[in-house]
Give the backbone structure.
Amino acid sequence: MHNTPIVTKCCVVGGGPAGMMLGFLLARAGVAVTLLEKHADFLRDFRGDTVHPSTLELMHELGLIADFLALPHRKVDHFSVQVGARRLRIVDFDHLTTHCKYMALMPQWDFLNFIAEQGKRYHSFDLHMSTEATELIEEAGRVVGVHARTPKGQLSVRADLVVACDGRHSTLRGQSGLRCREYGAPMDVLWFRLTRRNSDLADTFGHIGAGAALVMLDRGEYWQCAYLIPKDGFDEVRARGIEALRDQVLALSPFLSDRIGELKSFDDVRLLAVAVNRLEQWWRPGLLCIGDAAHAMSPIGGVGINIAVQDAVATANRLAAPLEADRLTLGDLRAIQQRRALPARMTQGIQIAMQNRVIRPVLRTVGEPRAPLPFRLLDAFPALRRIPARLLAVGIRPEHVRTPDVLAGSR
């Protein structure tokens, strides 16, 4: 049993992309930060594994890009989609002005471990694994910390600010009283992996067929596959059996026939229940929500991890100095939402439009599918591919690191 509470400037709850990056940047600026992650490690499969050029640019600004890219990864410099027998190229990253003109496919556990190791270089970075925040501590209408559960018993953390980075099913958001608006989604996603052969196309692409869609991410030794199903349709898919799912996958990607047997049962499949939502207000006294805790993204474009990282950078830029100087105000918290709400809202708007105008019709298609008009235009006019590339790679209102490095003078 823990008897003495931890006292810190900032308690970050959730060791995902937003939480880990925020903890690292605050510690790098000299702010005492305690980061709570409920799992013992980051080894959870089928998480967002796309590191976009905007995040790679931040690594470049931090002077970490060489070490980061030394980790195993695959480079993606374009996207294609196959509709029936027709293959269309819809995104090219080669025109970007970023340091890296490609997307890196990297296991999220490698990404998070890398940031955690960078954070540990700073004495004010206090990471607690296997520590699950269970309850907000409130006094006089203000959040002043959290109670957490650990293998050694209960732990209390007292902080000037608690930042909820605990994902789309955020415990802290649920307790905060902050109102969340749901926007819905027409699909859920089934994740699974299949072996990749050297003879396979070295590509990252989607397949659209009659009433079905499959996205395949080249992970080197295997394909990470995302099979789209109608919303809340998993029970029906299970009832038809694993053989039916195999047949549906092969109808989209026949070249997988020599390895589809690796999909032995539904134990090899993970369900992602797609949600798109956003808090009306991201903060209250003593508490701030960022990343998926503030705005759950659709998996379209794989932008969730990168939006979360951008949130973290903006939060560190604004809050590091007032936190360190004990002069944090509600205006500072309000400013985070004012800066990051527009990118979140516009990105979700694009995703919702894609869901309604492309994915929903695809999932309802009977017979031979026809390529959606936007895909046909992007394939026919290469210059147009710069538009989705810019939105995917850099996003809306990209952030840049403005916080200092307290170790800079010692190097």
User: Anything to note?
Assistant: The radius of gyration is 22 Å. The chain has a mean pLDDT of 92. The chain has eleven helices and 20 strands. The first strand starts at residue 6 and ends at 13.
